[in-house]
Design brief:
By secondary structure, the protein is mainly beta. Helices cover 8% and strands 34% of the residues. It contains 1 helix and 5 strands, in the order ββββαβ. A 3-stranded antiparallel sheet has the order 2-1-3, with no helix packed on it. The protein starts with a strand and ends with a strand. The model has no long low-confidence stretch (mean pLDDT 95). The chain binds zinc ion. The site of zinc ion has 7 residues, from loops.
């Protein structure tokens, strides 16, 4: 994926400069991602405290 930023707080991946969930600036420096389709039944989502389906970075620098 190119030109995608990750939120430093919730790790949400977005093309925008500001996270639509947290309203804080996003970072271009991130590694790896997961696609969460159903946060309620995903152990990763629960571990990362994700409540909303979408793509999330595993690590944000
Ligand atoms: Zn966020």
């Amino acid at each position: 994926m190119k030109n995608v930023n990750a939120c430093k707080n919730c790790h949400f991946l977005t093309e925008k400069d500001v996270c639509p969930n947290c309203s804080i600036p996003t970072s271009k420096r991130w590694r790896g991602y997961v696609i969460i389709r159903d946060p309620d039944s995903s152990q990763i989502a629960q571990k990362m405290n994700i409540k909303k389906p979408g793509k999330y970075a595993l690590k944000v620098m």
